[in-house]
Structure formats: structure tokens, C-alpha cells
Task: structure prediction
Amino acid sequence: MSQRAQAEKANEEYLSAALTWLRLLLLRAAGPEPSPVVLTPDAPEEAPAPGTPRRRLFRRQQPAAGINERAQTPATHLLPPAQPLDLVTDEQLQEALDALRRAEASDPPPQLILLGVRFGLSQFERDVLLLCAAMELDTRIAALCARAHDDPAKPYPTFGLALALFENPSWEELAATGRLRYWRLVEVRQADGQPLIASALSADERILDFIKGLGDVDAFGERLSAFLAPLEVAGSGGALPHSQQVVADMIVNILSQQATRPELPAIHLLGTDSASKQLVALHAASAMGLRLYRLPAEMLPQQAPELETLARLIRREARLTAVAAYLDAHEYDAQSPEDAHVWLSLRRLLSRVGETVFLSTRDVLPDLTKSAVPVDVSKPTAAEQRDAWAAALGLHAGDSPARLAAQFDLDSTSISRVADQVISRDAGDEIPLAVVREQLWDACLLHTRPRLERLAQRIEAKAKWDDLVLPPNEKALLRQIADQVGRRGKVYEEWGFARKMNRGLGISALFAGDSGTGKTMSAEVIANDLRLDLYRIDLSAVVSKYIGETEKNLRRLFDAAEGGGAILFFDEADALFGKRSEVKDAHDRYANIEVGYLLTRMEAFRGLAILATNMKSSLDEAFMRRLRFIVDFPYPGEPERKDIWQRVFPAQAETRGLDYDRLARLSIPGGAIHNVALNAAFMAAQAGTPITMPLILRAAEQEFRKLGRPVNVKDFSWHEPAVGVVA
Result:
């Protein structure tokens, strides 16, 4: 017989012995059930025989009529006919008590005995809990309670009944601070004006399940199940990367050293990667024999009484079945006034839960009322990610592990999920390595696509290197930027620069030049060449007039893009990265703080950040020094404008008689040339003709007026060349 089966059998034998003993106690308290007696006006009520024991809690009320109406009550009918109604002798009680004591000594011990040990219950408290649980375990108990109360309307346990039944009672054990009521082991249903001693008692559903031997079932009862859910992370059954295993071992060591203390410290998990923190917490809890349950911060009640009840239920469950709570506040900002109520509830809860608790936040949460040990948790290192890719891909690895680890910064769970998604797509078929290579890259892009809908706009990069018209030096700088992004894995990891340097590993570039000189197109070209997503930052959504909100938005922006699959493009960056000014008031001070935050955050950013401005001189000098590249986009000269005009019309567009030398003399940048070409194309489509010089010049005149340029009508007039002259 298995150990579990032995425990279940021992628990059943104990409950059977306990219920037998309890029924005898109740029968003795109730006394024998009298036969119906008919009374006449002249005949007095028969007195009981001398010496008959009648241990009643309350004096029996005589029936108003001549028939003893108690025999007709529903409570009496709950007793099966086989229930003996004779008086219970001391010998019977002692025999039942001896059987109960033998059952208590079983190994493993019964569940009620375990519960008493874990909560420090006295013998009287344990007996009260047995009485309450017996109501659900034996249908005869309700009728016996009614008889013991001598009131058919009270077929339930009360403290008054317990005081009469059990030995060594104490009033302190009945108080709200007593263990039975504090831990919600029993519930008191006290009506208005009803004495506590006469109020109905019942065992909590979760406690009843534990007593019956269902303590290992993942069901906390209705109240606690609404808040807690098992923490499940895909791939958590495997080994942790070495860097994360070191953190998990440190947590286990901290909790083991504090095990003898009345209250354990909270483990405050810090970092930007929620999945890694959950994985480390799972492994640490498993090493300590604990099951981990997640409690989202948004589920915390704000009312103090509800929070107090929740804390007690969590502590109670930890003592019942060795569980730990994972308080997940990863998405909340400790500095945001909007989230202040969440942090208040967290602090209150932590101050009341003395068991093992993991708290997940991005940054240190100050002013915790409970001792907390901060622990930093990071994603696996690039080398560990490479090994994880190799293990997940197996025979389909090829050069993908090194390539993916160099570009994308993923946790172990995400690596397993992406690999399974690609490899299982054609399960059983031999997938070419080249196909796997491209599918893995696309899957990583989708997985790391940041949630930036409110702060940024994703640009579909279509431009290629051949579309750029720039001087050779500037074009070479752009290619160097793309090359560094593509080869940073080799330089940082294989050549050891990442171990020697802890700052400046991000790649940042400034594109400076007038509007329309090709800054945005150059960003598209780089993104297209690297096969990465390009996000244009919406500064109107990032910059806030409220103190601290701009930094919060920027942090959310950079954190979301840390996965490596996105290029951040700050257009009109001078509005955000301007010079720090002399502090004259609070606004100046916080504006300087914003710039300072940006300087440090840009250095720590893992990906590529591109800043575009047409006011280079307005940027902060300290910021300029920390940029890896500065690319100046000159205003295009006539040769460059001619080249742009020759490239601007798609091959499918029908053109006729275009004079590119004449068009190149129009002094407008490349962005304006694109606008003119597009407007001329629409004019041609409306007229039903090819794109011609008159249409382009008319569109150019409109563009000049839009830009506020002086317009000379002669510059935009067109005379068809003489016949035989080639335009």
C-alpha cells in the first residue's frame, strides 16, 4: 500500500473513531428521549425516577398540550431508527475515547491532528473544530445538537454546547483573537442581539476539506480562489540558466537562514523581465517544497478589513499546504500617483503576511513596513541564450543560435516558445535550415514587437540602399551603423567587450539636417537592411506637463523595445533632448532631470536609437558626446536633385518628355520632390494622361507656395520643345 493510501486509511479510521466518541458525548448531554406522556388536568406530571442523570444545557419546556410535541419535530426525525436512545455509560465513553487516542497516534498522523499542530490548537479548540466538522461528516449530528440544546430550532453547534461537552475550556479561546476565529477555522453566524455563546458555528469549507484529507487539492475555497491562481510558466520544469540558478540558490539560502524566525522576510524581485522573475521564484519555491501561487496587484482589495481577511487566509493556506504567494506588481510604477492605491494595499498586505512571499516590481519599493530582501533578476546572458537556442532547436540550429542571441534579448521561456512554434509548424517533415533561419527571425520579431501603440507608430520600412541619394561619406556612415548593429554580438560577446565595459553598449545615432533631406528614409533603409521593426516616437504622447510622467513614458518606451527587435526613431528630437538650462524654478529643475534621465537611459538601451533634428545646435552638449554616430544630411545640390528626380517615379508610372536637368534646377529637398511627384501623378490620373512636365511644374509651384518660397511664374512655365528636338 502506498504512503498516500496509508495516510487516507489512517485518517478515515481516526474520523470514524472521533465521530463515535462525539455522538456518545452528545447523547449523554441530551439524555434519553422520553416517551409521549398524556397529561390530564388532575394528574401531575410524572417526575423522573430518583438518580436518573439528565445533563441538559437548558431546562426542558413542557408542551402546552397533553402530547409531547418534541417527538414530532424534524430534528428528531433526522435520527435513524437504529440510533440507540439508552443512557451512555462512563464505560462506553472511556472505550470510545481510548479508540480515539489510538487513532490519533497513527503514523502519519490524521489531518485534524496535523492541523492542530500547525496552528497551535489546544485540546479544547481541536474538539470544537471536530464538533463543527462533524455537521458535514455525519447527518446524525444535527439532530443530536438539537436534542442537547433541548431546542429543535438549534440543530447546530454553539460555543455553549462545546463548553458543556468538552473538558478544560477557556473563554480566551472563544474570543475573536483566539486561534479558531483568528485563522477563520470556524465561522460564527451571530444574529443581531444574539449572545456569542448561543450563535451557530460552522467549519470553514477549506478547513473541512483539509480535515477530510483533501489538503493537496488546488482549491482554496471560494474566498481565496478568487485571488490566487497557480503560477505556471512554460518550460519551468527544465534547468535554469546558470546566472539565474545562482539567484534562485541565494533566495533559498536567505529563507533557510530565516526559517526559525516568527516571520519570514519578503523576497523583493527586481528587474524588467517578468518571465525571468517568475521562473526564478518557481525554482526557489520548488527547492523549498513550496507551491507558488500568483496574486495580481490589481486584485488586491483597497478596504482594510477585506485586506486583513485576505492576509489571514494566505497565511492560513501557507500553514495548511506549504504554499507561497507571488505578488505581481510588475506593470505598476512606484513613482506614479495613479498607482499609489496599489502600493498602499501591497504594503498593508506584506505587513500582515508572515509566510514566504515573493514581490515582483521593476524598481525598489521604498517604505515597506515588512522586512524585504531585494534581489535583482535579469534575463539569461547572451551566451546562455545562445545555448538555450541550440538546445531548443536541436538539429535545426545551424547558425541561428548565435545570430538570434546577438540581436534579440529573450528569456528562457520565450526561446522555448518561439522554437516550438517554428519547429512544430511542419512536424515530422525535414525543414531546410535556410527556411528555419528566416522563420525564427520573423517569429522573434513578432514576439519582441513592443506594445507601443500609444507612444509610437510602427513604420513599414520599404526603402533600400539604392533609393538613397546622399554624398559618399554620409552613406558610408549609415552602412557602418547597420554593420555595427548586425555584428555587435561578435564584438560584445565573442571578443569580450561586454565584460570589460558596462556602459555605452547601446548604439545611438543623430541624423541632423533640414526637413526633407532624407533622415526618415535613411532610418527606413537601415531597418529594412537589418530586418527590424522601425518605430517613430510620438513626442506629443511622451512629453507630459506633469512632473515625472515624461520619465515614466520614456522608461516604458525603452523597456518595451529592449527585446532587440525594434529601432526607435525620435523625430524632431530637439523638442525632447534640448539643452539643460539654468535652474530658476521647479520646472527648470525637472526639465533638466528629464534630459539627465535620457542621457543615462540611452547609454543603457540595448538596441538602436536614432534621433532626427533640423536644429542640431539646440541639442545638449553632454548628449552629443554620448552619441555613437552623427550623420549630417546636407541640402541636395543640383546633381543630387537630378538623381532624386530620376529615381522618384516607379517603373510602372507612365511618364512622357521629362526634362530632368530643368527639374533639378528647382531648389527643393528630396522630401519635397517626393511630394511634387506624387501630386503630379494624381493630376495625370485625373486627366487621363501620362505624367508630363506641365503637370510636374504645376505641382512644384503648389509645393513652393506651401513652403512659403518666392514664386516666379516664369520658373514654372513650360514650352514644348520644337519637333525633332529631344527633351
